[in-house]
User: Which sequence fits this backbone?
């Protein structure tokens, strides 16, 4: 199982900070998922639903549920290990 933690910020290129004025997320996305593919699919669905882009993305970390670092999540849903090798 994997824990994902992602932070978003207001996009400086958009006057209101977000494309969608009815943003229902707070500026964080968290979840526990059985596979890395599940993380990717859910994350891409959420950013599409909320019209979030790379300018809103701040950071994304993936950990085991025991707290061990697995890698990072990019704004485009790609997942990288600690050696910057793409996992998915």
Assistant:
């Amino acid at each position: 199982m994997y824990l994902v933690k992602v932070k978003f910020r207001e996009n400086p290129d958009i006057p209101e900070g977000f494309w969608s004025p009815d943003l229902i997320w707070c500026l964080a996305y968290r979840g526990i998922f059985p596979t890395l593919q599940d993380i990717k699919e859910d994350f891409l669905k959420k950013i599409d639903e909320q019209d979030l882009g790379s300018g809103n993305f701040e950071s994304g970390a993936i950990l085991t549920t025991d707290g061990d670092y697995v890698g990072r999540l990019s704004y485009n849903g790609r997942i990288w290990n600690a050696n910057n090798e793409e996992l998915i």
